[in-house]
Amino acid sequence: MRWGILATGGIAASFTANLLDMPDAEVVAVASRSDVSAKAFAERFGIPRAYGEWSALAEDDSIDVVYVATPHAAHRVAAGLCLEAGRAVLCEKAFALNSREAGELVTLARQRGVFLMEAMWMYCHPLIRRLKALVDDGAIGEVRTVQADFGLAGPFPPAHRLRDPAQGGGALLDLGVYPVSFAQLLLGEPSGMSARAVLSDEGVDLQTGMLLSWESGALGLLHCSINAGTPVIASVTGSRGRIDIPNGFFFPETFVLHRDGRDPEEFTAAPEDGPRDSLRHEAAEVMHRLRAGDTESPLVPLEGTLAVMRTLDAVRELIGVRYPGE
After folding, report:
1. DSSP assignment of 169-227, as one string?
2. What pTM does this model have?
3. Pairing of β 65-68 and β 254-259
4. Which residues of the chain have pLDDT under 50?
5. Alpha-carbon distance 9 to 303, whole Å?
6. Please, are residues 138 and 324 in contact by the beta-carbon 8 Å criterion?
7. Interior CA angle at 69 toward 193 and 249, to 5°?
8. What does the alpha-carbon distance between residue 114 and residue 108 come to, in Å, rounded to a whole number?
9. What is the pLDDT of residue 249?
10. Active site includes 93?
11. Contacts for 20-28 with beta carbons within 8 Å, 24 or more apart?
């Protein structure tokens, strides 16, 4: 399966390195807004073609699928170019700047009959899939509470993309998307929410606390930050037990199931799953779906992606964060 890489930042480099370790994947082209950046990236990874404009990559007929790794404020334009050209797309999270842009991308993909998936690698991780199966099978009874956090200590200077409103900066879209996506993986879209945040001078959230609620009575206590290094842990509590995930909950190497009246059970990643930070599981899912002729993935369904974007929009409305042009 022939991949094109759109953007040349850190996550693009990590994903490309993972692809190069997969025998059924080939990286054939890379694009950046800069010829210099594209050529340097191509030389670093031995990629045959480098483009100094995104449209050239989108129009390259030798490419089966494009990985869009720009900051999320550019996802609508970058992924849209590729979908318009008939290219399958794996688009980084947050999927777009807001639910309107996300909906436009989904509509475009469906109109063109082209594959589209959010790069929510957590959903493809073998242990997260095992955890979801246990919860769905009633291992801890009815879910009552989901707790999750993701915070980085920083400090990030005002010019950094995480604090730049023009690039969709702030903790919520970059980090909070993980706790929100984790909670909605298990419980679906919430029926209610409240939120509080501390905003930067630039008007983006430095940290945000969220309380989500569902009609079942379940609650989600979620937190994200770009000025505090949090434990990055998660816990799912049910009517008959609890599941705890230690540091790095969205790419775990282990979790512990506590069932009422039983000894704790530890679930650990299998050796064949590779390093805990491997991105190959989402790449493998994309290639599996493309070979099957599918236009979306049941592991990362587009309706689920849109539901997460609606939640992020609602939280931003509550905390008073708006981006240029909205």
Report:
1. -SHIIIIIHHHHHHHHHHH-S-SEEEEEEEE-TTSSEEEEEEEEE-TTS-EEEEEEESS
2. 0.97
3. unpaired
4. none
5. 28
6. no
7. 50
8. 8
9. 97
10. yes
11. 20/45, 20/46, 21/280, 22/280, 22/283, 22/284, 24/287, 25/1, 25/283, 25/287, 26/1, 26/2, 27/2, 27/3, 28/2, 28/3, 28/4, 28/60, 28/62, 28/63
Q: Tell me the CA end-to-end span of the chain in Å, nearest whole number.
A: 37
Structure confidence at residue 31 (pLDDT): 98
- Asked whether the beta carbons of 220 and 166 are under 8 A apart, the reply is no
What the block records as the tokens of 191 is 């029926």
Length of the chain, in residues: 326
**Among all chains, which residue has been given the structure tokens 């807004």?**
33
Residue 268 structure tokens: 């650990």
Q: 290 near 87, Cβ under 8 Å?
A: no
Q: Which among 162, 137, 131 is positioned nearest to 246, based on CA atoms?
A: 131
Q: What is the DSSP string of 100-165?
A: HHHHHHHHHHHHHT--EEE--HHHH-HHHHHHHHHHHTTTT-SEEEEEEEEE------TTSGGG-G
Q: Which residues contact 272 (CB under 8 A, 6 or more apart)?
A: none
| C-alpha 178 chain-centroid distance | 7
Among 315, 105, 123, 106, smallest CA distance to 211 is for 315
Choose, from 93, 258, 280, 289, the residue flagged as catalytic: 93
How confident is the model at residue 272, as a pLDDT?
83
pLDDT score, position 196: 98
User: Residues 6 or more apart from 251 whose CB is under 8 A from it?
Assistant: 121, 122, 125, 276, 277
173 vs 94: CA distance, rounded Å: 6
Instruction: Determine the Cα–Cα distance for residues 232 and 25; give it in Å rounded to an integer.
Output: 31
Are 5 and 47 spatial neighbours (Cβ–Cβ below 8 Å)? yes
